[in-house]
Every structure is written in structure tokens, then in C-alpha cells.
Amino acid sequence: MVIYPVILPVAEYEHHLPSREKAILLSRVARQALDLSAQKTGVTLGELCKGENDAPLPCNGHYWSVSHKPRYVAAVVTQDPVGIDIEEVTPRSESIFAYVASDEEWQLGGGKTWDVFFRYWTAKEAVLKAVGIGLGGLKKCRVVSTSPVSDRGDIVLSYERVTFLVEQLCYDNHVASVLKNSATVQWIIPETPPAGKAASPWYSRTPASTQSPSLTHGQSYTPSEH
Ligand SMILES: CC(C)(COP(=O)(O)OP(=O)(O)OC[C@H]1O[C@@H](n2cnc3c(N)ncnc32)[C@H](O)[C@@H]1OP(=O)(O)O)[C@@H](O)C(=O)NCCC(=O)NCCS
């Protein structure tokens, strides 16, 4: 099975909207990304509904997940429970390392750098979204192994004794993570819209797919007890 996570840039002029309007707009742009992912997957999504903890409910038998940050949004539609997250790599307070992972986990990734931090953070959010828990489950979600840091790689995590395989892509100082387990991932990243150009019509007219070289393309992986 191939899954098509979509990353869309947020148009420049939209960066300066007041925060409430911006949140609504980012959520809307994320749904445009979701439409593109559904289109690539060949499915039609109906009305998007949420359940407990604000977690997305399956729609016409398909699972979906979105993430929206000031400069980019990400979204994916799949046949299996899924989670996606995108974050900009920007230094925070050092104290956040202890909140997100243990010393043992940081050693697995090669140490406490901001690149590794955002790989771990987005990977854990992707898993916790897929299980519908959100950040409340952070302490129980652990990194088990990672591929060497590169523009594209895999990371294995466990949550409640179940193992999850997440694929990650570094793009324009952002890290995106999507839960893939046994699927093959084809990232879709349309070209950046011209500054000041409205996003909606542009995105649906010219989706250009990019397929980055993969470390693990076609790898078969079965979620297992860990
Ligand atoms: C889900 C959560 C991890 C989102 O992280 P974030 O980095 O702030 O936001 P992102 O942009 O990456 O993701 C937002 C999307 O996550 C999805 N989402 C929200 N809660 C979710 C959950 N429990 N499980 C899965 N997905 C969830 C929504 O679709 C949301 O987008 P939408 O509102 O436009 O539909 C975080 O908000 C969370 O832990 N929520 C759980 C509820 C909770 O514990 N609330 C505590 C309030 S004090």
C-alpha cells in the first residue's frame, strides 16, 4: 500500500493575520492538503468528524490526520489508523528535552540536538495522534530505534507495548513525520505559491508530486508487540 502525505506551504501574506483568524485559516489549508491526499489515494472523503479528545474519526472507511504550523501544513488519508505532524526546527528552552524523551532515547539518536529533538517530537505526535490520545500519552511513547539523521529516514517507536514505524522528511527547516507501518510513503510537496497569492485555487490546480530518494522504500514492516 502506498500512502500520500501532502505538505503545503502557507502563503506569505497569511503569516500576518491575527492569531484566531490564522488558526482557522491554517485548519482550512490543512483540509486542502487532505483533499489532495484523498485525490492521490483515489478516495472521496465526506464530512470530517471528530470524536473523543478532538481525535479525527474515520470518514467513509478512511483514516485522516492533519497538522498545521505557521509556514506549512501537512495531511494524510489512509486505510489504517494514521497520524501526521510537522514542526519547524527552532531552538526552545533546553528543559523541553527531558519532557519529550529519556536520556536513553536521546543517546539512540546521537544526542540532544534540535534536529533530533524535532525528529522525536514529530514522531511521537504522529503515533499519539494515530492512537487518538494526543500529548497526554507522551510519557508512554518511546523511541526504540532511528535511522541516521538525514533528509529522509525512519524511526521506530513503542506505545503501550505496540511498535510503530514512522517515516520522516526534512524540508525547508521543518521535520514532518507520518505513521506508515507496512506502507510505502510518497510525499507530495507542491511548489511554493508566489508571495501573496491565495492558496486555495492554486493548490488544487497544480499539484506537483515530488518523490525524495527513500532510505527504506518498499520496506515491509508489521506492527508488533515490543
Ligand atoms: C493532538 C495534539 C497532539 C495536536 O498537536 P499540535 O502540534 O498542537 O497541533 P497540530 O497542528 O500538529 O495538529 C492539530 C490537529 O490534530 C488533530 N487532533 C486533535 N486532537 C487529536 C487527538 N486527540 N488525536 C488525534 N488527532 C488529534 C486535529 O485534527 C487537529 O487539527 P484540526 O483542529 O484542524 O482538525 C495536541 O493538541 C493534543 O495533545 N491534544 C489532545 C487533547 C488534549 O490532551 N488536550 C489537552 C488540553 S489542556
SSE topology:
Elements: E1 2-3, E2 6-9, H1 19-41, E3 63-68, E4 72-78, E5 84-88, H2 96-100, H3 103-109, H4 114-130, E6 141-146, E7 152-159, E8 162-171, E9 174-179, E10 184-185, H5 199-205
Parallel strand pairs: 1-10
Antiparallel strand pairs: 2-4, 3-4, 5-9, 6-7, 7-8, 8-9
The site of coenzyme A (COA) has 17 residues, from helix 1, strand 3 and helix 4.
CATH fold call? Ribosomal Protein L22, Chain A
Calculate the mean pLDDT score and round it.
Answer: 85
SSE series:
EEHEEEHHHEEEEEH
Number of domains: 1
CATH architecture: Alpha-Beta Complex
Query: Uncertain spans, ≥5 residues at pLDDT below 50?
Result: 193-226
Total beta strands: 10
Question: Mind explaining what this structure looks like?
Answer:
- This protein is an alpha+beta fold.
- It has a single domain (2-205), classed as Ribosomal Protein L22, Chain A (Alpha-Beta Complex), CATH 3.90.470.20.
- The protein is built from five helices and ten strands; from the N terminus they run ββαβββαααβββββα.
- The protein has helices at 19-41, 96-100, 103-109, 114-130, 199-205, and strands spanning 2-3, 6-9, 63-68, 72-78, 84-88, 141-146, 152-159, 162-171, 174-179, 184-185.
- The strands form three sheets. The protein has a five-stranded antiparallel beta sheet, covered by helices on one side. The protein has a three-stranded antiparallel beta sheet with strand order 2-4-3, covered by helices on one side. A two-stranded parallel sheet has the order 1-10.
- The chain starts with a strand and ends in a 21-residue tail after the last helix.
- Residues 193-226 have low confidence and may be disordered.
- Bound molecules: coenzyme A (COA).
- Coenzyme A is lined by residues 27, 30, 53-56, 66-68, 85, 125, 128-129, 132, 134-136.
